[in-house]
Amino acid sequence: TELEQKPIIPDGYECQHPPYKVLMVSKSPLVIYIKDFITPPERDHLLKLSKDTFTRSGVTGRQSHNSVRTSQSTTVPRDDIVRCIESRALAFQGYDVPASHLEPLQLVKYGPSERYHYHTDWFTSDHDTHQGGNRVSSFFAYVHVLNGTTGGGTNFPRLEAPADGRWCDDDIVDCDETWDNGITFKPVEGNAIYWENLAVDGRGDERTLHAGLPVVSGGKVGMNIWTRERALGKGIRGEDL
Ligand SMILES: O=C(O)CCC(=O)C(=O)O
Ligand SMILES: [Fe+2]
């Protein structure tokens, strides 16, 4: 029945935030790596919530060519666990952003050869910023990575790769990547990358250009949490603002 297929939130569930760890990647643009940002039960829940709802991903603005994003995506319906993740994303940003500035969480799924070409998360067309303004910040979290996945990293070609070998040892950064390719984060379940998209003058920062590199084998599911400059209306955000 329909009831049995709904993902279950355990009785007495209370939102608790995991003791995640942060590592600064870049001060300008601000880029922060977050370990253990999404807990295993949350990851499970997100996958169940979105099961069978993925469709071919869209792109906006000048980038609207279908081969740039071959992944599938879906919007996650909001429930208590999703609200918990949203509140964590807001707390991370210093509590001063209201929930109404968050876009609904978006999951993106990639199988072999699927990718998302170089793009910025900030919008280049007024049409997209009309409601809510531009995307101030992005979290990209790895929600699910199949065992033995190769490829599928997240590459920022204009950021400088960190020099310290500990980034490689912990399997966070792909250190086989040549130095002039910038920085490539390997998909690690539960971890997230946070960055700020806009310069102080509010203009999009070109240095935040990035791509979801093609998955070679295996697969990954990622999650975008985008924060806007201003409040979004019910049309995008849904009933509870
Ligand atoms: O798949 C990735 O690693 C990045 C995805 C991405 O940048 C996006 O969905 O905006
Ligand atoms: Fe992106």
Automatic annotation (TrEMBL):
<dbReference type="InterPro" id="IPR044862">
    <property type="entry name" value="Pro_4_hyd_alph_FE2OG_OXY"/>
</dbReference>
<dbReference type="GO" id="GO:0005506">
    <property type="term" value="F:iron ion binding"/>
</dbReference>
<dbReference type="InterPro" id="IPR045054">
    <property type="entry name" value="P4HA-like"/>
</dbReference>
<keyword id="KW-0479">Metal-binding</keyword>
<dbReference type="Pfam" id="PF13640">
    <property type="entry name" value="2OG-FeII_Oxy_3"/>
</dbReference>
<protein>
    <submittedName>
        <fullName>Prolyl 4-hydroxylase 1</fullName>
    </submittedName>
</protein>
<dbReference type="GO" id="GO:0004656">
    <property type="term" value="F:procollagen-proline 4-dioxygenase activity"/>
</dbReference>
<dbReference type="GO" id="GO:0005783">
    <property type="term" value="C:endoplasmic reticulum"/>
</dbReference>
<keyword id="KW-0408">Iron</keyword>
<keyword id="KW-0560">Oxidoreductase</keyword>
<dbReference type="GO" id="GO:0031418">
    <property type="term" value="F:L-ascorbic acid binding"/>
</dbReference>
<feature type="domain" description="Fe2OG dioxygenase">
    <location>
        <begin position="101"/>
        <end position="229"/>
    </location>
</feature>
<dbReference type="InterPro" id="IPR005123">
    <property type="entry name" value="Oxoglu/Fe-dep_dioxygenase_dom"/>
</dbReference>
<keyword id="KW-0732">Signal</keyword>
<dbReference type="InterPro" id="IPR006620">
    <property type="entry name" value="Pro_4_hyd_alph"/>
</dbReference>
<keyword id="KW-0223">Dioxygenase</keyword>
